[in-house]
Amino acid sequence: MAEEIRAEMVANVWKVVATAGDTVSEGDTLVILESMKMEIPVVAEVDGVLQQLAVNEGDVVQDGDLIAVIG
Known about the structure:
Number of strands: 8
Number of helices: 0
Shape: globular
Helix content: under 10%
Distance between the termini: 6 Å
Low-confidence stretches: none
């Protein structure tokens, strides 16, 4: 079953660390968000393969927006 990772706040996508197809482990950083001059890492919540990365550097995400899917 695929695990969706969603934004927990409004933020800018500062840096994309992983790419679709990467094998990730729980705790690996996928994306770094920036909000109010703070860097917030978005990490994998499960082990698996990054099936989809729904954001690009410079994007703005809203609370609840899809960031990634791990399967």
